């Protein structure tokens, strides 16, 4: 890298520019660098293919196109049938120079495995790069393209894309001043689920030494369930469940089929639309076993973990437009039982929240079912298998919507990236951040940096006897072990693939 922001990669020379968010003008950003060929045409539904090298200098000043996606969820990127399909691109923020050996953080965006993009302003890596990290963010295939079962084609193509991006980092990041031997892979929500999958995937083995996972979803699919979802897609599309027949369908047609599937609601229990029908598929060579099983036998022990969740995860969805219909407590008990809870669990939740509405109880149960319990259990299982893991819980609450969001899903993101001046942060903070918010962000950014650099975020690791929890708040707390009163209710829930 030189004064003209020129870097020579394995594919050819790229030119970036100074980040406009850089306080001292020292951070360079390179946007839209291809790490694999466009995953369409001959490459559709296949493992990522290498990029063809280019001549001359490639101008990398604009983000690459997002992967095909609909607009079903918060965080969806603008996409239509005219958007370029050359979506396997990544971005680099760095203040380092070649030979600096700076720690590297690779970010995987969330979005229920069906939406999202590395171009979101929340994910701008400038502030983290100013701390001394080299930050990489990536796009990957989503929805059916990335996780749909296609006979004769690899499962988990989205995970394979991420592994390809990590190989690009291994082969190229030194030219940006990064240390290929000190890489942390990080993500939130579906991005955290991908991180958990990469811990297990043979294709990603040895490509990172640390992992950060915020709000890890418990959802995974068996191959049989994945096939049934694909059969439904094929039925709606009116084609056989065959690779060539599916590859002949335009991405927007497959997205429409997914939208039709997601529009359906269960006939018993709580009536609400599903957030997604896709998740990593267990049983393929890309993901031979679940993260919990792999961690229990020590297979993940060489990777340091920093994991955590927010106190009121599910409020983002119920307060931001998800229609929820609950007739009575019996209806809610049906849904709780589907999540694996025993018949007495609902009464315990009621004792803990005596004035809560049925929807509030549903929100609390779903937050624990989808994110909270699995996240902490993975850390504990990893520690029992000989690994090192640190746990946090975000308790600081959003003042938006009259405080109804609380410490909701994704509230941690602007703080962790140090980006409290984005539109998303302004919404969640109900305006300009206070000095208290800025100080909390500074502490969380420091924890990310220190963990990526050394493996120590600043508080004790989980042991086989205790689960220390760093509680992020206006005034932080450190609990010597996990005090969550509902964890015993989930103790026997196996979180097996659907």
Q: In what order do the strands lie side by side in the largest sheet?
A: 3-4-6-8-7-9-10-13-14-15-16
The amount of helix comes to 25-40%
Strand content: 15-25%
Extended strand count: 16
Alpha-beta content class: alpha/beta
Q: Catalogue the unreliable spans.
A: none
Mean pLDDT: 97
What Rg, in angstroms, do the CA atoms define? Answer: 22 Å
The multimeric state of the shown protein is single chain
Choose one word for the global shape: globular
Number of helices: 15
Biggest beta sheet summary: 11 strands, mixed
Alpha carbon gap, first and last residue: 47 Å
Please tell me about this protein's structure.
With 498 residues, the chain is of the alpha/beta class. The protein is 31% helix and 15% strand. Strands 3-4-6-8-7-9-10-13-14-15-16 form an eleven-stranded mixed β-sheet, with helices on both faces. Helix 5 packs across helix 7 (251-262). It is globular, with a radius of gyration of 22 Å. The relative contact order is 0.11. The mean pLDDT is 97.
